[in-house]
């Protein structure tokens, strides 16, 4: 709209107009304005219309709506009726809603001693059919690391392991022992057996550690038993093997490659200072399972996380952290090899009464954005029990993300 000021007309009260659509007049319309000192004529060069602009707040002052949404099932859900089936998994047991893994009453396979200083691996169920009237089967658990005893058939490490196991079994007065390289022969159940080793340790008569010099490239160096034991203690699975072993017998350490003699005997309470670099924390875990101290569920998980996070771990085996926890908690979900490490732990947390462990864990602010999810180091130096979450985790999605129920949020318009 343009405005123009022109000279005062000689004629007064003169109008010459042509009506236009909408009640406006043509460009010849004149409007006389009286001012205190002069008269000014305002000419409208174009038709005039009144425009009123009302400036109202967006969305009536409310927050802008969140425009993103997704409809579907989460891979892991706390509600069993919201869990999709897993058609890519041929095992029908995985099609159950939130399936759990039952604890083993006894190992599936054991090595039985022979009179001629040898052993024979038998299926326990077949042995029990022939010996129904015998007393309860007792066996020792042989713990070792593949860094020191390789599964390579070109080496004689497996024969050495069986020799140590036979010697330890006869010394303990039992006729059976469990050795991982021989007692997990069926590939069909290998995944479940690996993560149910904790049940085998629980039912054992005693724990025996077999240590020896590492593999090729280290033959020239002489190792002490303490050095070899610390190397064995770096394993992730050394924790459940020691923590869940019986308290009634000391742990025996047999060293290969040294002069023959009596094995080391270490009570479980003294074992952390001999084998683990984080003895101050791991000693509390041992005391908890011995019954000398009682840790709360959050204290137990926090200390276990601190210990396990210091162990060397390959990226493809990060899920072992969750599987180690499976042996320490009551209810265990079935192993799903397609889960990430975080999903495996989330599945475990949802299945158990874990005192909102997962909710507390995601509330911590890490000191570094590059740290792993299982490293508990809050930038404000807070612990899990300092957090009181209000919103429960009801599902776990792909990309290691979670679904919260009852969470309040709003989209923010940054200016």
Automatic annotation (TrEMBL):
Chain residue ranges for the region called Disordered: 1-32
Domain of life: Eukaryota
Name under which the protein is recorded: Genomic scaffold, ProqFM164S03
Compositional bias ranges of the Polar residues kind: 14-31
Organism, as annotated: Penicillium roqueforti (strain FM164)
